[in-house]
Structure formats: structure tokens, C-alpha cells
Amino acid sequence: MPDYVIKATAGNGQIRVFAATTKEIAETARELHQTSPVVTQALGRLLTAGSLMGSMMKNDDELMTLKIAGDGPMSGLLVTADAHGNVKGYPYVSDLNDSMEAPMLVSEAIGEGSLNILKDIGLKEPYVGYSPLISGELAEDLTYYFAQSEQIPTSVSLGVLLNDDGTVRQAGGFIIQLLPDTTDDVIDSLEEALTKTPSLTKLLDQGNSLETIIANLFIDLNLKVSDQTSTRFVCDCSRQRITKALISIGKQDLVEMISDQEDIEINCDFCNKKYLFSPADLQAILNRIEEG
Ligand SMILES: [Zn+2]
């Protein structure tokens, strides 16, 4: 079943809700990057955050980059999302030699570090938000980010459940935000519901739909679903784009590459697709630059 995001409000408009199932996205990322279990979980969680936060963007042409940098063995992760449900991402290190039998925690793989959020909203300078990692499990770190950088009380949940063979069994998450005028009884009611509710991936695995899970969570809070949109892992790389990148490295470097008389292989970070350029291809690019 394709992944999707639900947007809703609750508590008479005092609460904003974004919820997503992202199993296909997380599994696609695992296949493309051949990740070991802990990396599959970390990348799946951040991609889920990308799907959710992409759906929160106000402008059609907005782009967001979520970047985690840490001193653990995975070093970090990078995810980008647009406002149309397209997400892509990659880990800095794909395979940590961990296994389903000897699981590693995401926070161990990431270590101490920071979360950077870059929003390109079409202005000259992108908006940049920053916060230190407080747990390294990502959901808590985003919760902290929203409180610190954007001053919005937020509850974030991100989960990836794996099969015994390390493939993705379930993935999903939600972001719940309180508007400034949220009354105490609504906050209390929400907190109680969140404490009582098992993890989203567990509920999905029991066969509950995302709609049912969210409806149950907000059973006393008058949930109103406003939108449901699809989300997916897409990489928009192409030979043309890579050629542009080669043009931008400049004449000098191209001349050197051609003189080596060997094929150049360029990997797309996001999807691992390989692009091969022969010395003749490179010469053609050089000719194009020289012709202006
Ligand atoms: Zn690509």
C-alpha cells in the first residue's frame, strides 16, 4: 500500500495533527543504500520526519533539508523533502555491521551531535534552524527542536519496525502541535491519550489503519481530518544534472580527468545510481564549456 500523510485538527482547532505511514519509503531507502538494521531505523525515522514536515510547508516550491551530524559510527544522515510528498535521503555510513540478533540503538549509532534544518522558501537566504541532539533517537530531538527553534509545543513520534531479515515491517510517525491558545484541559486530555497509546508502528502492525489510530488517539478531542496526500521516496537525479555538476567543477579539473584516460564513475548520494563518463564524454563536456 502506498505511503500517505494525514493532516487534521483537534480540540476545536487548538491542535494540529500530521500523521504518516512510511513503510515503502523506509524500505526503498534500505534497498537503495543497503543499510544495516540500525541505519535502516535511523534513516527511516528521518525520512518519516521529512514526509511529515514536507506536508507542513506552506508554499508549493518550498524545500527542506534535515541534517543530523553526530560523533557516533554512523556520522550522520541527510534528508530532503518538498511540499508534494517527495522525500529522499542517505546515511553517511550505511553499514555498521550490527545485526538483528545484536541490535544497536539509533542513539549509539549517531552519538552526540546536532540537528540542522534548512528551509529554502524562495528567499535569498534560506532559513536555518539548529538544535543540539538531546537523545539521538530523533523523535525527541525534533520535539526539542520545535520547542527551542520555533517555540511551538510539539509531540513527535517516529518509528521503524523491522522483520527478522532486517527489511522494513512497518514505519510511520506523527507530529502534534499545540497552538498558543490551547486550553489546559485540552493539553491534559492529549497528554493522557498519548501516554495510554502504544507505539504507532505496533498499532499499524496489529492491522489498524492510520485513520483509526489517529481517531482513537483524539477520541475525546473532536478530530477533523482536513487532507490526505501521498508521499514517496523519489530521487530526481539525471545524467543531465550530473553533467551540470561536472561543468561546475571547471576546466582545469576536467582536463586532468581526461588526461587520466579512464572512465569516471559518479554516484548519486541520494539513490546510489551510478553515472559513467568516458574520457570522450568528458571531452565533449569540456568542448561545451570552451564553446561557452
Ligand atoms: Zn539519485
TrEMBL record:
**Descriptive protein name:** 33 kDa chaperonin
What task does this protein carry out? Redox regulated molecular chaperone. Protects both thermally unfolding and oxidatively damaged proteins from irreversible aggregation. Plays an important role in the bacterial defense system toward oxidative stress.
What organism is this sequence from?
Acetobacterium woodii (strain ATCC 29683 / DSM 1030 / JCM 2381 / KCTC 1655 / WB1)
Family, according to the entry, reads as follows: Belongs to the HSP33 family.
Keywords (alphabetical) are: Chaperone, Cytoplasm, Disulfide bond, Redox-active center, Zinc
Show the PANTHER family listed in the entry. 33 KDA CHAPERONIN (PTHR30111)
Q: InterPro entries this protein is in? A: Heat_shock_Hsp33, Heat_shock_Hsp33_C, Heat_shock_Hsp33_N
The cysteines covalently paired via disulfide bonds are: C235-C237, C268-C271
Question: What GO terms describe the biological role, i.e. biological process, of this protein?
Answer: protein refolding
Task: Provide the Gene Ontology terms for cellular component.
Answer: cytoplasm
